[in-house]
Structure formats: C-alpha cells, structure tokens
Amino acid sequence: MQVLLIEDSALLREAIMEVLSHASLNFKHVATTQADAIALLDKETFDFMIVDIELAQGNGFEVIKHVMQPDYPFTPPIAMILTNHAHPHYRQRAKDLGVKYFFDKSMDFDSAIDTIEEEAAKFTL
C-alpha cells in the first residue's frame, strides 16, 4: 500500500512510521504543508493518505477537497484524518468530504494504527 503521510510534527511522523514499520505499506512520501501535499498528489498515485487537519501551512481539509474534485487525475486515495482537533464539527466536515476514517491522536492513536494495518493487509491479499 502506497501511503502519503501529511503531518507537520516530526516527532509524530517518526512515531507513525516506526509503529507501522512491520506493516505491508510504503510511506512513499511525507508532506508538512497543504501545498506540498497537493503537489505530490498531483504527480503520483497513492492508495492511502494519513492527514492532519492543522499543518505548518494550510490545512488537511483543503488537501482532501483537492483529491475529491471531479477533475482530479487519479483515483482518490483512502483518507484518514489523525488529529488533535477532533471537534464534532470537524468530524462532520470530514464525513461530508468523504473521509473514511477520523481519529483523535490523543485518544484513538492505537485504533488508528490498527485501522491502517487492516487497510494495508487488504493490499497483500
């Protein structure tokens, strides 16, 4: 499974990649800003993207909106939001955008990792 990790915290990026190092996935690229993420998504295909809402510049919702546009050149990757901003209105906005998974970093990190592993297993079958 080809993954784009969109997260501005170096510590969290390293933790996610370390915890998932045994899984059948490839962190193809990492982006820390909205612009970097969109540029990568316009050049290459990804199966899955892990998206933080608040980025160093811009936000994850705009990245998700970009890949959901009718003229997006590839099949949109499965989207997971992993955020510290798990407010109900953000959850609803994510749902409205077609985000498949939404997790709170502080409360649901283990569940998010389990879900990523489950998605990765689907690609090895």
Automatic annotation (TrEMBL):
Gene3D superfamilies membership: 3.40.50.2300
GO biological process: phosphorelay signal transduction system
PROSITE patterns (UniProt xref): RESPONSE_REGULATORY
Source superkingdom: Bacteria
Entry keyword set: Phosphoprotein
SMART domains the UniProt entry points to: REC
tRNA processing keyword on record: no
Every Response regulatory domain range: 2-120
Organism: Methyloradius palustris
Coiled coil: none
CDD domains the UniProt entry points to: REC
Protein name: Response regulatory domain-containing protein
